[in-house]
C-alpha cells in the first residue's frame, strides 16, 4: 500500500470512528430524552474534520504505527487538544446546543479510544490471541522464549526493550523487566515492563524470574561502575550481552545483530574518545600526514582518527598489501572528502623511504611500523634490529632531512628496563629519537610510551576469545602475570594529542591506570559467555616465555614524570640517557650494517648500546647484564 492510500484510509477511518462514537453516545442518550439527530449530524462531521486536521498537523498520518512504542499515544492526545478546545466552545456557544454535554463527553472519549485502538490494532490482537491460548487452551508460548532482564531503564534500556519485543520477535526474546539504580524508578513500569530492583539485586532477580539472558543497556558509564554491575551479573552464571550505543542501535535492522558480547574495552570503561579542550590541535590539522605501519592495530586507528583532522593528504604506508587495501577502502567510505594515498613500501629500504619523503613532503609523521611480538623478536633478533631500529632511524632521518614538522615514535613499556630483544630494540628507537632531536634542522622529535592495547592482533584477548570458542583450554603463562591495558582508540587519540604538545626531544607516557592480572581477564571472558572457569573451560599455565617479565613498568627509576595539560598524558622531566649523539649514531649504523654478532647474546649487545656511558664507566660488566 502506497503512502497516499494509507493517508486516505486513515482519514476515512477517523471520520467514521468519530461519527460512530457520537452516534453510540447519542443512542444511549435517547433512552432518557429525544434529540434531533438531523440537527446534530453536521456538527458531528465538523468535529470529525477538526480532529482529522489536528491529527494531520502533528504528523500522525505519516507514522508506521506497527513500529511505534506506547509512548506515541501521547502524540495522539496532544494532536486532539486544540480541536477539543474548539469543539467545546462550539458546543457551549451555539444555540440550540448541538450535543448534550453527556453525549459530547462520552462521544469524545469513545472517539479517542477508537483512534488509539485502530493504530495499535496489531498489538491488541496479538495480546488477545496470547490470552486466548493461555486462558482457554492452557498454552503458554513464552515459556520457550528467552527470558531477558535489561540492565538500565534509561533511554538505551527503553530502546533495547522496544527493539527486542518488536523487531526481533523471531528471536523468541521476552523482556521480563529492568534493573536500575534510580530510586525514583523502582516499582514503576517502562515499556510495559516493571523495574524489578537495583543492580545489586540482579542475582536475586535472575533467580526469582528465571532469567536466561541479561542485556546490559547503560552507556557513558565509568569502568569501575561497569565492573561492579558486571560482577553482580557474573554471579548468576547467566549469559550476558551488551546493547550497542544509541547510534549503533538505530543502524541495526531485524536481520542484523542487535546484541553483542561484552568487549574488553567495556571492562576498562575509560570514557569516550574526544579532543581535549585544553590542547590546540592546529599543529596536526590541515597537514600532509604520513602514518607508517598504517595497516597495524595502532597505525590503522591513528589513520582513522587523523582522517577527521582535515589533512591535506593522508599517506598510509605499510608492507602489508591486503591490510593496506582494506584500510583504504574503510577510510574512503568513512571520509570520502579526504585525499588518501596508499604506499606499499618497507621502512627499512632507505632509498624508497627517501623517495617517498621527496615526493610527498609529509609534515607530520607517525611512526608505528614495528615488530611487536616478544617471542618472534627473541627468535629472530636481526629482524627486530632491521625493522624496529633500522626502520625508525631511516624514517626519522628522512623526516629531518626533508624538514617534516613533527615526528612521533610509537614506543612501549617494554622499552623500560628491557629483558627481551623486542623491548631493547624499542629502547634504542627511543634513543634514535633523542639523538635526531639533538641534530634536528627544525623537526620536532618525540616518542609516546604506553602499555598493551586491547584486542590488537596477536594480543592475549583475541587469543583467549578464540580458545574459548574452541572449548578451551585457555592458556596463561603465569597466574601472577600483570599488564597495563588501554583501548586502541584511546591510545591513538592520546598519541595525536602528544604530537600537538611536543616541543621536541621529549618522551610522553600515557596514563594506563592500574595493572590488570592476565588470569583475571581470562576468567572474566569465560564467565561472560555463561561458562565456568576450570569447569566448563580449563585454564592451563604454560610458564613464562623467554624474555617475558611478570610486571612491566612505564619509567626508569631515575625518570621523573610531570603532568601535562592533558589528564591522560604525562611527560618525562628529562632523558635518563646522556650519551654523545654522534658516537651513538655511529655505533647504531655499525649495528644496522652488520647485525647482532651472536643471536644468543643479542639482548646483551643491544643493552650495551642503549646503556648510558656514565653507567658504563662505573661498571663495564654489570650494566650489560639484563635486569633480574
Tally of separate helices: 22
Give the neighbour order of strands across the main sheet: 9-8-7-10-11-12-17-21-20
Mean pLDDT: 83
Instruction: Note the beta-strand portion.
Output: 5-15%
The shape is elongated
Number of strands: 21
The largest sheet is: 9 strands, mixed
Distance between the termini: 77 Å
Helix-and-strand structural type: alpha/beta
Q: Percent of residues in helical segments? A: 40-55%
- Low-confidence spans: pLDDT under 50, at least 5 residues? 251-256, 613-628
* Whole-angstrom Rg: 34 Å
What would you say this structure looks like, in words?
With 628 residues, the chain is an alpha/beta fold. The chain contains 22 helices and 21 strands. The strands form 5 sheets. The protein has a 9-stranded mixed β-sheet, with helices on both faces. α11 links the parallel β7 (288-292) and β8. The radius of gyration is 34 Å and the shape is elongated.
What keywords describe this structure?
single chain, 628 residues, alpha/beta, nine-stranded mixed sheet, six-stranded mixed sheet, 14% strand, elongated
